[in-house]
Every structure is written in C-alpha cells, then in structure tokens.
Amino acid sequence: MSRTEQNGTGRRRPPTIHDVAREAGVSRGTVSRVLNGGHNVSPSALDAVQSAIHKTGYTVNRHARSLITGRSDSVAFLLTEPQERFFEDPNFNVLLRGCTTALAAHDVPLLLMIAGTEAERRRNMRYIAGHVDGVLLVSSHSGDPVAAQLHDAGVPLVACGKPPGQGSKVSYVAADDLGGARDMVRYLYESGRRRIATVAGPLDTPGGVERLAGYRATLAECGLPYDEALVVPGDYSRAGGEAAASLLLERAPDVDAVFVASDLMAQGVLTALEKAGRRVPQDIAVGGFDDSPAALAARPELTTVRQPWDRISSEMVRVLLAQIGGEDPAAVILPTELVRRDSA
Amino acid sequence: MSRTEQNGTGRRRPPTIHDVAREAGVSRGTVSRVLNGGHNVSPSALDAVQSAIHKTGYTVNRHARSLITGRSDSVAFLLTEPQERFFEDPNFNVLLRGCTTALAAHDVPLLLMIAGTEAERRRNMRYIAGHVDGVLLVSSHSGDPVAAQLHDAGVPLVACGKPPGQGSKVSYVAADDLGGARDMVRYLYESGRRRIATVAGPLDTPGGVERLAGYRATLAECGLPYDEALVVPGDYSRAGGEAAASLLLERAPDVDAVFVASDLMAQGVLTALEKAGRRVPQDIAVGGFDDSPAALAARPELTTVRQPWDRISSEMVRVLLAQIGGEDPAAVILPTELVRRDSA
DNA sequence: CTGAAAGCGCTTACAG
DNA sequence: CTGAAAGCGCTTACAG
C-alpha cells in the first residue's frame, strides 16, 4: 500500500516532509528550512521544494513541530464571567469574533475556555500551562485572581481592560473610558441639560471607575455641582439599569439627562423611563456606552460612546503575538467616538 | 541544571514520562500503560506510578501523544453564519457555552472557527483535516456545502439541526420542531384564538420548514382553514419579525394570534404590534420559539417553546465523541416544552 | 505483568 | 548552501 492510498479508516495518510524531500530531490532538512522562512536555501532548491509541496499537497504536522519547538501555535480565549452576562451582553460576541478572525489571519487557532465556576477555572489553568502559547483574558472582577496566576506562571497574557491591581506587569487593551465619558457628558451639557445623572458601572471594574471619573470631572469642568443623588451604581445588566433608573427618578425627579455606563443598562433605563411616563429625549436625554448591538435595538436608538471593538480585538491579538515572540508587555488605550442617534 | 529547575525563559521544564518512571522505579512503558487505562499493570506498579505522577506534577505532553496516535484530542466548533446573526441571536451563545462545557468534562478543548466568508471557509476546511478529530457544525443555509465536504473528507461531524440534503449520512441533533410548533398552535387554539397567523422561519432551513409544517398540521387538526394571508416568511432577525408583523396586520387586520418561529423575531413582532396600538395578549396573542434570553427580555415576556439547549449541546458532544471513537452516525431528536408567560 | 526498542514527523545544531 | 544525525515525549507491538 503506497503512502497516499486509502488506509482502512477511510482517511488518507497525509504526506510528510519525507515525501516532499523525495519529490524535490533534496534532504528533509532543506524542506524544513523552506518551511521555516527559506533562509540558507538556494533559489533552485527553494523552487523544487515549493513545487513538491504543491504537488504532494503537503501541510505541516503541527504536533511534530510543537513537540520539538515547545510551542503549540495556538492561543486561548479565556472568559471568566458568570453565565448570564455572557448570554446577555453582545460585547462578548463582538470581541470573540474579532479575536478569532484576527488570529485566523496568522493561522493561529483559538481555544475557547469558559470559567464560570471555580472548578472550571482550575481545570482551565491546568490546561493552559504547557498547551497554549498565550491567553486573551476577558474578565472584569476585581477579585479574579486569574490574571495574577497566569502572570506568575509566566504565560504570555493580554487582558481586555486593565486587570485590577496588576500594575503595569500585565498587558492590556482598553478603550479610553474616561475620555469617552467626558465626551458624552459634555455633549449632554452642550445640548442644554443641567441635571445630568449617571448610572455607573460596577465600581470594582476599571471601566466602571473610569467612566464615573470622566462624568465627575466633566461636571466640574462645566461648572455643574456634583450631587450624590444623581449617581446610581449599576451592574452592566439590563435589569440593573431599569432598577437604577427607578431609584434615580425617586431621588431626583427633576433629572433631565442620564449618562449610562453601558448600552445594555441604558436599555433598562429606557424601559423604566417609559413606565414612568418620561419621554426620551424630550424630557430626559439618555446616553449609553459601548455602541453594542443593543444600542440599535433600543427604542429610541441610543446615542452612545463607541468602543472600537474591532481595533480592541486586533490589538489584543497583535500584542499577544508580539509577547509570545519575546516582546515586553504593553498597555494600549484606544480612542472612543461619540455616536449621535435619537436618545440624546 | 536539573530537569525541574528554571530555565532561561522563566518557564520550568515540565516533567516527562521519564521522570515519572525514574521516580516510580518502573519503565516508561509501564507509566504509559497507567496513563492509558492501567491495563496489564500490577496493583503495586499502578500505585507507584500514580504517586510518582502526583509527586512530580506530571501531565501528558499532548503533542507527543498526538504525534503517535494520530489524534489531536480536540474538536472544532464551526460556525458558518453571517456576522450579524451571530451577534444578535443569543441561541449561539447558549450552544457555544454548552458545547464548551460538555467537552471540558472530557478534557477536550474546543477550537472556535468562524466562517463568514468564502475565504474563511476554505481556510477552516484546510485546517480541520488533520488538526482536529471532529467538528460540531452550526450552519443553517441550505446552500452551505460544508457538511457535505466534511463528510466526504471523512471527518467525524455532527450538525446542530438537520443539514439540508444530507440524507442520514450526517449525524445531527435537533429539537422536535414540528412537535413544538404543534404544542404552541394548539395552545393558542385552546385559549380561544381562531385567526392564528404565523411568522415563519427561513424556508431553506429545516427548522423553518418543520415549524411551518407543525403550524399547518395543527390548524387542520383543529378544523381551522389554512389561509395564505396568515403566513408571512421571516429571516430569524428582530427587524425581519417587525416587518413581517406590519405586513401581516395589513393583510389580515382581524388576526388574533401569531405563532412566531423564533423569539428574536417575536421581539420584532411585539414592537410592530405596539406601534399599531394592538395590545398583547388581549388583542393579539404572541407565541415565540426557542426560549432564548430574548424571551425574557421581551415586553411582555414571551410565551414560547423551549428548545432544550443544554441537552442539545451535550448530545452533540456525546454523539461526536462516539463517532470519533468509531461508532456510526446518528440523529437525535429532543422534545420541546411549552413555556407559558405573558404574551399568550 | 513488564522492559527494551522502534518509530511518529518534525527542527536544528553540526560539519562540511 | 546542504545533508546526516540527534532528539523532542510519547505509544505500542514484541519478546519474555
């Protein structure tokens, strides 16, 4: 039975470097050199090998390569979020798809790992060390030890958003939360609003903190007083936004604008305002954050702050691959953009 | 430098089967036998190896194992949907998470592959053959050739929903779409509705066809006439549902119930009915399909047909792993359940 | 039940 | 620029 014939299982035995070498009339070492950049290979040998590769349909056996290089040429996308948030929040999809696509361009497969429970987290950590070249980490809890653990284990890592309490040892990519919040609040001010409230994100997440800081700083810049009654914390969920808005209307019935720290919460805010009989934007202007699919699904469509998800995911991938290649960690902050629609 | 000391890169050199064998005082072959089920190993050797594994912190090098076994011990989750649907439809998240978790229980990593374009599809197909033991396929287009291609390439495969035109050669797991539609339509009938319309799914998808068939059959069983004016096709998107409902109100203003083939479309239907000033469920009852997170986000909350996503994903994984292990393809149909909430 | 040995497909000094 | 050779960490007949 020749090497390329059917074997018993119905799968063909794929060609190896040896088949290519024989076909090209060179040694296996030369074929390998061609595969790895073509350095120290004569033009004629290069040519012969390339057409032999084409003719045989050869593709490298990654297991054999990984065994010797010690690299897996794959990357994990590790999500440490409770189940509900992953299902509800469209931002994760955008990010996951962006990273998958950006990695595919480098021929690097993405292993999806989800750690909703402590047991899953341990299992994933065990797998990561030694099976994956690096990790794209999506996690927002300040209590989450996974960034520190991965860093300590020497695993190349880039987080989406600044991991709390990691100083600058860990790479991350984030939008300019503070600047985005500032743009929105200034926009509300310039459209004549003077009682501007905010539904904040969780204050144990860097994004939540920064957006609130941007709100507060801009109020000061505009000469508006900071009124604690106008600040309500949220949890990035739709239901949380609705509850926050109800509370807000109770505490400050004269509010004329709300900056909401996420589009999903803003959807909840819209629901609460509608129930309360307040018109948006006539009575109360509502500004969101993210420009996620939720912004377009909302009624009215949300004026919001766009996070550049495509760039966030491609930068995460770029920084991670660089780090796997030996570069030092880096933090990347990307600008946001105010998107005007109907809610403010 | 001993084998377990730091090397230059800050990573430790992980223990190998050789370290375990030395520690346990047996040969590497015996260690390997323990690793692969412990057959033909004496109790005392088993014991020595197990504690040596524990002591050294040994984990198998999957690359070395794969090189020799020819298996990768990994599985691809291949999504061939246009970008928008993946972002909008929460069903994908539920399925993706379910499969990830079910595979994790078998220590099998999931490679996420997304093929939105023809180029991505080709790249993924090239990667799959030889790098992955099997594929979980999520794709609904009747024109999609990927199921046939994978099958022809001899790659173990299980689809979510019956792949169009594949006979019974390809394994799949699906909900009982026809039965679910029947339950809903019968429920609407029994609550007194007599002008029951439907917003159907795409008719080039098996789910769309089956749910429509269930609608039609139940009408007949209830002695209601089949009126083409009451049947509007949709595309599983929210916007499509809204458009369909507008059209429906125009064609049949006396409609008193709508069975909508997906929750996301049902959200759009609710929006259109609200705009038209129709109360739900008083004037018009609305029944959805999926029991996705969209059903709970809708106002009023949707009465719908639950697809058992947890079981669908775990069955997909079970059937795929069985097939990788040599079993024949199989089709699995899972029962649905009517979930009563506020919209009908 | 066990060990010695071959070999999976590749990369990489090494010597020329 | 090139080939011969060692070796990555494992599994699996084979002989005992």
TrEMBL record, chains A, B:
Pfam families: LacI (PF00356), Peripla_BP_3 (PF13377). Residues 15-69 form the HTH lacI-type domain. Keywords: DNA-binding, Transcription, Transcription regulation. The keyword Glycoprotein does not apply. Coiled coil: none annotated. InterPro entries: HTH_LacI, LacI/GalR-like_sensor, Lambda_DNA-bd_dom_sf, Peripla_BP_I. PROSITE patterns: HTH_LACI_1, HTH_LACI_2. GO terms for molecular function: DNA binding. The keyword Transcription regulation applies. It comes from the Bacteria. This is DNA-binding LacI/PurR family transcriptional regulator. It comes from Streptomyces clavifer.
